[in-house]
Amino acid sequence: MSVTIKDVAREANVSVATVSRALNGHENVAEEVRKRVLGVADRLRYSPHHAARSLSSRRTQTIGVVLPDLYGEFFSELMRGIDQVARERGLHLLVSSYHGNPEEQGAALRAMRGRVDGLLVMSPFVGERGFLEQSLSAALPAVLINSGAAEGHRTLNVDSYGGALSMMQHLLQGGHRRIAFIAGPDDNHDARERLRGYRDALERALPGTAPWVLQGDFDEASGHRAGGELLRAAQRPDAVFAANDMMALGCLFAFNQAGVAVPGQIALAGFDDIPLARYVHPGLTTMRVDIADLGGRALRALLDGNGGDPAPGPRLMVRESSGASPEAAR
Fold first, then answer.
1. pLDDT tens digits, residue range 109-132?
2. Which parts of this chain are annotated as the region Disordered (predicted)?
3. Which CATH number characterizes residue 3's domain?
C-alpha cells in the first residue's frame, strides 16, 4: 500500500495540516517540526498524489537544476534547452553543480528544498544505496537525466549503449579492426553504457579480440593524453572511438601535433555531436544527441507531471574523420 499524508502525520506526531505546511515550505512551522516532518517523509518515501500539482501553484516559480558540472558544450547545450522551456512557461532556474562529489551533490539537493518547485538532476550516484532517499525530498517532484534507472523516480536517458553499437558498426564496416576506445569517468552512466556498447560490438564482430581501452574524463585534456598514449604504442590503432566529442577533439589535436593524418593514418569518431564537431578539420564523425532537446524534454516531463516523451535515439553523423563519405550519414 502507498504511504499517505496521514501516515506521515502519525509518525511525526503532528497534524495533517502541519505536514502539508511543512512539505510546502510555509513559514508558520517551527524549524524543528519541519525537519522532523521532512525526515519522516523521506524515510517513508512519501510521494503526494499527482506530485506535479505542487507545481501548479507556482509557489516559487523556480526550478532547480543540479548537474555534475557547468563547463563544456554538453552542459551549455543542456541548459539552453532547459532555459528555453523555462522561459516559455514563465519560470526561473536555480542551478548548481557538484563536480563529481557525492557529498556536494547531496548538499546541493538539500539546499534546494523550499526554494524550488521541482528538480532536474543528473547524477552518477543514483545506484548508491540510500543516496536519493537522503538527498531528495519525497515531496519535491524530480526528473533524473541520464542517470540510469532509479526506482520511484522519473528518468530520461539517452540510449548510449545503442549509439555505441551503431558507431562501432560504422567503424567496422569501414574496414577498421584495431579500434581503441577512450572511455569516460567510471561513475558516469553514459560512459559506462558507451564502454559496454564498444566491448559488446567488438566481441560480436571480432570474437576473442582484446578491447583497447584508455581512461578519459570527458574533457579535452584527457582526450589529448589518450591520443599521446596511442601514438607511443608499439602498434598504433587504425581507428579511435572516443566516448564523447570533447575527448575526440583533444585526441585530434594530439594527432595533428604529431603530424598523424586523420583519417589517412588513424580514423577518429566521437559521441554527442556538440556544435564544434562539424567545424573542426576534418569534420568529426559522431553520434548526434540533441542535447538541448534532451534538456527541454526533461523540464516538460517535470512540469507536465508525466514520464515525458522518450529521448530520441542517437543518430550517426558521418563526416570526414572516420574516412567514409559524408553521404553515408543517416
1. 888 877 898 999 988 766 555 566
2. 305-330
3. 1.10.260.40
